UniProtKB/TrEMBL annotation:
Residue ranges constituting the SLBB domain according to the UniProt record: 127-206
Assigned keywords, A-Z: Cell outer membrane, Ion transport, Lipoprotein, Membrane, Palmitate, Polysaccharide transport, Porin, Signal, Sugar transport, Transmembrane, Transmembrane beta strand, Transport
Organism: Pseudoxanthomonas composti
Sequence ranges assigned to domain Polysaccharide export protein N-terminal in this UniProt record: 46-120
Gene Ontology molecular function, alphabetical: polysaccharide transmembrane transporter activity; porin activity
Stated family: Belongs to the BexD/CtrA/VexA family.
Pfam families: Poly_export, SLBB_2
Record PANTHER family: POLYSACCHARIDE EXPORT PROTEIN GFCE-RELATED
Intracellular or extracellular location(s): Cell outer membrane
Entry-linked InterPro entries: Poly_export, Poly_export_N, SLBB_dom
Protein name (database record): Polysaccharide export protein
């Protein structure tokens, strides 16, 4: 039992040293202006193959029939409720598949050749993690077809007073490897650097300026820091 405890202690000591090295070198890493998009399976990408998930917000429109237009959220059972046709399953279907299903249901009894459009307004199935020195750390959906770094931070209600705004780090899976890039938020806000796109599955960390608090943040992310290489 003593040997196990000593092994665990040594392991944590090693993690602490690695975390300190990462912390020390963070400011010397080149500031990135962009990152390649993630691997297709690293996060759910907003394209025609996206499958609707519970929690997604949908807009359903029937051409020239405004009374049937609805903005509905997919419930926890994966269903939505629409006028005339009632409750139907939406989760697990693409926009086109759900559109076809709704068209068939309306055309059976109520309408002749209805033209139905389904749009996903909030992709809950595509989520990003925003943590560190922000007001409300958490897991946030990608709203719309595109999310930028500034928008992701805004969803977390902005950075806190302890934030090191020049040390905003994004973790992402690229070419089968977990990689990292550091961004300078003031430079982005001034337009000196582009506001990079954030994808589902990304982890955004706003590091803290206080060394001890920053170290605590790094330690919380040790499993990621251990295996993710710097992207330059």
């Amino acid at each position: 039992m003593g040997n196990v405890q000593r092994s665990v202690t040594r392991a944590w000591s090693l993690l602490l040293v690695i975390s300190l090295l990462f912390l020390t070198s963070c400011s010397s890493r080149p500031v990135a202006s962009d990152m390649p998009p993630p691997d297709p399976l690293a996060g759910v990408v907003a394209d025609t193959d996206y499958l609707i998930s519970a929690g997604d917000l949908l807009t359903v429109q029937v051409f020239q029939i405004e009374e049937l237009e609805r903005q509905v959220r997919v419930d926890n059972s994966g269903r939505i409720t629409l006028p005339l046709i009632g409750t139907i399953k939406a989760a697990g279907l693409s926009e086109d598949q759900l559109q076809k299903q709704i068209t068939e249901l309306y055309s059976k009894t109520y309408l002749q050749d209805p033209q139905v459009t389904v749009l996903v307004d909030e992709f809950t199935g595509r989520r990003v993690t925003v943590s560190g020195a922000v007001t409300k750390p958490g897991l946030y959906p990608v709203v719309g077809s595109k999310l930028t770094l500034q928008q992701a931070i805004a969803q977390a209600e902005g950075v806190s007073q302890l934030a090191s705004r020049r040390n905003v780090v994004v973790f992402r899976q690229i070419d089968g490897e977990k990689k990292i890039a550091r961004f300078d938020l003031p430079a982005i806000e001034k337009g000196e650097m582009p506001d990079p796109e954030i994808y589902g599955g990304d982890i955004v960390v706003v590091y803290r300026s206080d060394a001890r608090l920053l170290l605590r943040t790094v330690l919380e992310l040790t499993p990621f820091v251990m295996v993710w290489r710097a992207y330059r």
